[in-house]
Amino acid sequence: MSYCVALKLDRGLIFMSDTLTNGGLDNISCYPKTFKWGVDGERQIFLSTAGNLATTQAVVSTLSEQTKPSATDDLSILKAPTMFQVARIISKTLSKVIGHSAEGQQGADSAFSATMILGGQIANDEMRLYLIYPEGNFIEVSASNPFFQIGETKYGRPILVRAFDPAMSFSDAIKLLMVSFDSTIKANLSVGLPLDINIYHNDSLADAEVLRVSEDDPYYQMISSAWGEALKASMAQLPEFTFETGG
Predict the structure, then answer these.
(1) Cβ atoms of residues 136 and 87 within 8 Å
(2) N or C: which terminus of the chain carries fewer CB neighbours within 10 A?
(3) Other C-beta atoms within 10 Å of 2: how many?
(4) What is the largest CA-CA distance in the chain?
């Protein structure tokens, strides 16, 4: 299982993903789950993936092959005029890969299923963020749904729902994401460090700032410890329950 989150802030996009891949108790390794393509000054594209590793690798490899100068395919995400068209290319590629891998099983319940978050910006357009489903359809982020999660989402979602603000700084957004990931990692052994972070500045059309958070990262360890202590302190400050107050 994976955990990936993408936030659309007023000042840019942040993608954060774990790197743990688990093929069984004796087959645990790390593999990146966020990928990027770009042309400085013209477009920057980011893709986070969760689901069957063979499927996601095939999709990423296909997209990369299509961007090579020698490629004759017009489906290159570096040639698409809009991010919407990029989303269509990636959704069709995902649908095709799943269909080839599991004829008659295509869909969210297929063993070859995968879900993706696409984000980025093309010159003369605003930033976009999409959630791409294994069935080949997709939706765009909205005011009522200002971020996307894929993979093991349930443990880290409450903190995002309560505290996310599109006007927040990159620093505060990363702090929020670290709490979300720490909660997920503590609750699910299939999600783990290192964590990859990609930060894209709105209208820059420049490559993202890339960070990797390892298990011994002092800031992550401080956030994990401080968040646990803060929860205990908050619980202690809540009014005591009695059978009278409890109804």
Answers:
(1) no
(2) C
(3) 26
(4) 75
| Residue spans of alpha helices (H) in the chain | 53-66, 83-101, 157-163, 170-187, 218-237
For tokens 């978050």, name the residue: 117
The DSSP code sequence of 7-39 is EEETTEEEEEEE-EEESSTT-EEE---EEEEEE
Residue type for 124, please? N
Q: Express each pLDDT in 14-69 by its tens digit.
A: 999 999 987 455 666 889 999 999 999 999 999 999 999 999 999 999 999 999 98
The CATH number assigned to the domain with range 3-235 reads 3.60.20.10
Q: What is the pLDDT of residues 87-127, one digit of tens each?
A: 999 999 999 999 988 775 555 567 899 999 999 999 999 99
The dihedral built from the CA positions of residue 222, 225, 229 and 231, taken in this order, carries a sign that is: positive
Q: Give every CB contact of residue 231 below 8 A, 6+ residues apart in sequence.
A: none
Q: What CA–CA distance (Å, rounded) separates 232 from 227?
A: 9
